[in-house]
Design a protein that fits this description.
The complex is a heterodimer of chains A (about 280) and B (about 280). Chain A is mainly α and about 280 residues long. Chain A contains 12 helices and no strands. Chain A folds into 2 domains: about 5-35; about 45-280, MetI-like (MetI-like fold), CATH 1.10.3720.10. In chain A, helix 9 (about 190-205) packs antiparallel against helix 12. In chain B, helix 1 (about 1-30) packs across helix 11 (about 250-280), helix 3 packs parallel to helix 6 and helix 8 runs antiparallel to helix 11 (about 250-280). Classes of the chains: A mainly alpha (about 280), B mainly alpha (about 280).
Chain lengths: ~280, ~280
């Protein structure tokens, strides 16, 4: 047999092997988390606050972390949408296609997307010290908002960029202002907004390094923006560091819960996206 | 809208400036060069040498890329050139999920699977004793975390290679692998390099998962089975007491500044390359 066919065969096997390795990691991670996390996962854990001696293995749950995560994520998602939708409109409708500013904006957000959350955390922390703020729900919301704005803008821009110029011209020819045109665009990028939102919720809920500096940790549910807030990833992290086996087991259960939330978002995202595409003009 | 756009552009600038201002006290006392190359770390005595942290970060990142690059390249070549539709339908959601799993979950997995594997199975083959919390463990966990990013970038790049090129190659009698190696890979090389640079900067900044499995001992690791202490772990572990010692806060902010500068440069360069690659194929 010719050398090139032998080479072909070897690399075909290697390619399949590489793909199988990726699968292997996937099943190993999901399998481990489910295997270790499912037995200690109880209803009480999800619905109650940490009791006295919770970190010594006594009664209680991680409702503080679940509530904290939800508050931070919902707050920052709304803020993030409010800031990023106008920016996407501006660079796609108001600026010309070859505009230097649009190029610079896209490049900036690409770079911001790559900045790790711990740097965001450190930066937000310096701002908070500057303004005399303590670790709080507000701090957590601010840092997560900063973290997800690049995701929002990049993925919405991806959809908005691919819109045909004819659509814009058609609205202008009907006498629409730029703002009215933006509304037409909004309907067109709706699926992009949904995908972007789900993506950023996924990233926001899993982030730990950023909120570590800014949101702090507490055993209670925060009742105002000024109070510290616990988050799920940090709850996993702190409980995992415990020498007591029961506490570590709860960390596994919390990790499973976190994974389930992210999985649901990712699968739900695929389903919802297809629904929102009905207004789309191809 | 205009104001928001300008404001958001300012974030990047503010971030660099803020971190620089915060780290200027420690730079004023020690030169930047000494901070980067000195390995003595004793905050109590006011000695801040970052070299062991930088070396730790670099080692972990290199191992991660060494594992992830061949796997991701072969997987994405397979998916774009060879694989049947049903294989793609199976693999893409898996990659999506892998990309979405939070880093703390990767850390838990690392502690439960990778660390014991290194301590009990792999380690004893090479060294007398290892705790398992090692450079290697950090590298493996990181590599799994960057594989989805690499594969999605590679697939994007490989699909931009025009089909005509591949058809021409096939009509000259090249096998699929020859086409992949000599046409697709060669054409996509700048893009592949840019993607790797992006993955490196992601690996460099990853905090929690690495912190959980790499041991966190302040020293320059001797071998793969030694503990290390990467830069992000340093910041994450010490932010609590950083206000208690003079200069400590400034030193930690300097660590954040190092990461910011490196990742800023890496990202900007690779994004510019990627944009050029996309443009050059569109003509």
């Amino acid at each position: 047999m010719k050398l090139k066919f032998i080479e072909e065969r070897i690399f075909n096997y290697l390619m399949v092997l590489a793909t199988l390795i990726v699968f292997g990691f996937f099943f190993s991670i999901i399998g481990t988390i489910v295997h270790k996390g499912f037995p200690p996962l109880t209803w009480e854990m999800v619905t109650s606050l940490p009791g006295g001696g919770f970190y010594l293995g006594k009664d209680g749950g991680i409702l503080n972390a679940i509530a904290g995560s939800l508050l931070i994520v919902s707050g920052s998602t709304m803020l993030g949408l409010l800031i990023s939708i106008p920016v996407v409109f501006y660079i796609n409708v108001y600026l010309k296609k070859e505009s230097k500013l649009a190029y610079l904006t896209r490049l900036t957000f690409d770079v911001l997307f790559g900045i790790p959350s711990i740097v965001y955390g450190a930066f937000a922390f310096t701002i908070m010290i500057f303004f005399g703020l303590k670790t709080s729900l507000l701090g957590g919301i601010i840092v997560i908002t900063l973290l997800i704005i690049p995701i929002f803008i990049r993925s919405m821009d991806e959809v908005a960029k691919s819109l045909s110029k004819d659509l814009l011209h058609a609205t202008y020819s009907l006498g629409a202002t730029k703002l009215e045109t933006a509304k037409v665009i909004l309907l067109q990028i709706a699926p992009g907004i949904v995908t972007a939102t789900l993506l950023s919720i996924g990233r926001a809920i899993g982030d730990a390094a950023g909120v570590m500096f800014t949101a702090g940790f507490t055993d209670n549910i925060p009742t105002s923006l000024g109070q510290p807030a616990a988050t799920l990833p940090l709850s996993v992290f702190f409980q995992l560091g415990s020498p007591i086996p029961e506490v570590r087991e709860r960390a596994y259960a919390a990790a499973l819960l976190l994974t389930l939330i992210v999985l649901t978002l990712s699968i739900g995202g695929r389903l919802i996206t297809s629904r929102f595409t009905k207004n789309r003009i191809k | 809208m205009q104001a928001l756009t300008f404001f958001s552009l300012l974030i990047l600038l503010l971030m660099g400036l803020g971190l620089y201002l915060k780290s200027s006290p420690v730079i004023a006392v020690n030169s930047v060069w000494r901070l980067l190359t000195d390995s003595e770390w004793s905050p109590m005595a006011g000695k801040f040498g970052f070299s062991s942290f930088i070396v730790g970060s670099v080692y972990v990142t290199l191992i991660a890329v060494a594992f992830a690059l061949p796997t991701a390249l072969l997987t994405s070549l397979y998916l774009t050139q060879n694989a049947k539709a049903w294989v793609k339908k199976l693999v893409f959601p898996v990659l999506d999920i892998l990309a979405g799993i939070p880093s703390v979950v990767y850390g838990v997995w690392g502690i439960l699977i990778i660390v014991p594997f290194i301590a009990d199975t792999l380690g004893p083959l090479f060294v007398d004793y290892t705790s398992g919390y090692t450079v290697l463990a950090g590298g493996i966990v990181l590599s799994v975390m960057i594989i989805p990013l690499l594969v999605s970038l590679f697939i994007e790049i490989f699909t931009t290679v025009p089909k005509d090129f591949k058809d021409a190659s096939a009509s000259l009698g090249a096998t699929r692998w020859q086409t992949s190696r000599l046409v697709v890979l060669r054409k996509a090389m700048p893009g592949v390099i840019a993607a790797v640079v992006l993955a490196v900067s992601k690996a460099f900044g990853e905090t929690l998962a690495v912190l959980m499995v790499c041991g966190n001992m302040v020293k320059i690791p001797d071998n793969l089975f030694d503990s290390c202490y990467p830069l992000p772990a340093l910041i994450a572990n010490n932010y609590g007491e950083m206000l208690s010692l003079p200069m400590y806060e400034s030193a930690l902010m300097f660590a954040a500044l190092i990461m910011f500068v490196i990742i800023f440069i890496f990202n900007a360069v690779s994004r510019v390359i990627l944009q050029h690659v996309e443009k050059s194929f569109k003509l």
